């Protein structure tokens, strides 16, 4: 079932992601097309907890958090594509991250714009191409692979990734 509105505000995003502060890294969905693409933003502020130690004199958003923000964006697209919202037993696991390239630092005041495209879905593995930019300049790009599991699935078969690597955990 496709949503008529192609934007999501923070309250709607929280219906699709279990993450909460400080790990919720998507502030708004600008547009999406079921089964294809999504564009979302993360407003990077000086108040981000990680800037206290990364780095005190030259604040830089950690690359792993930029990748996590893209993965959260991908998870939203997957749920929108399936026409369902996750429940408390749903977990999205990383199963692979390929061809990651960091092209520019991201800091306070920047707006990270994330464009994610579904490349394919096979045997429960979703593969995406993800690109994040700041002011039109490439900041990071990667191919992400994730799988969706429920607590019941965990008892039957573990995902390729270890249980310690769910998206956002």
TrEMBL record:
Molecular function (GO) terms for this protein are:
(3R)-hydroxyacyl-[acyl-carrier-protein] dehydratase activity
UniProt keywords (A-Z) are: Cytoplasm, Lipid A biosynthesis, Lipid biosynthesis, Lipid metabolism, Lyase
EC number(s) per UniProt? 4.2.1.59
| Listed InterPro entries | FabA_FabZ, FabZ, HotDog_dom_sf
Tell me the compartments it is located in.
Cytoplasm
Q: Name one GO cellular component term.
A: cytoplasm
Spell out the catalytic residues. 54
Spell out the reaction equation it catalyses.
a (3R)-hydroxyacyl-[ACP] = a (2E)-enoyl-[ACP] + H2O
Biological process terms from the Gene Ontology for this record are: fatty acid biosynthetic process; lipid A biosynthetic process
Identify one Pfam family in the record: FabA
Kindly report, in one word, the top-level EC class recorded for this enzyme: lyase
- Keyword Lipid biosynthesis found: yes
The similarity comment for this entry is: Belongs to the thioester dehydratase family. FabZ subfamily.
Q: Which HAMAP family match?
A: FabZ
Function summary: Involved in unsaturated fatty acids biosynthesis. Catalyzes the dehydration of short chain beta-hydroxyacyl-ACPs and long chain saturated and unsaturated beta-hydroxyacyl-ACPs.
| NCBIfam families referenced in this protein's UniProt entry, alphabetically | fabZ, PRK00006.1
Q: What is this protein called?
A: 3-hydroxyacyl-[acyl-carrier-protein] dehydratase FabZ
Instruction: Write the gene name.
Output: fabZ
